[in-house]
Amino acid sequence: MRILLLTHNYEPELGAPQQRWGAFVRRFCERGHHVTVVTPPPHQPRELLIDDSAYPRPGQVHLGRYGEVVHRAHFRTQGHALGTRIVDQVVTAADTTRLSIQRLHRHRPDVVVATAPAIPTLGSGAVVAAALRAPLVTEMRDAWPDLLAVANEWDEDAVPPGRARALVHSQLIRAASVGMSTIQRRSAAVITTTDTFAETLRDRGLTEVHVIRNGAHPVPRYPRHLPRVPDGELHVLYLGTVGRAQGLGAAVLAARHAHNAGVPIRLRIVGAGAEYEAVAEMAAKGDVPIEMVGQVPRHEVAEHYAWADTLLVHLRPWPALSVTVPSKLYEAMSIGLHITGVVDGEAARIIRETRAGATLSPGDPDALAELWAKMVADPTSLVVGPEPSRWTQVHADDDSLATRYLAVLERIARRRG
Question: Glycosyltransferase subfamily 4-like N-terminal domain location, by residue (predicted)?
Answer without folding.
Answer: 16-215
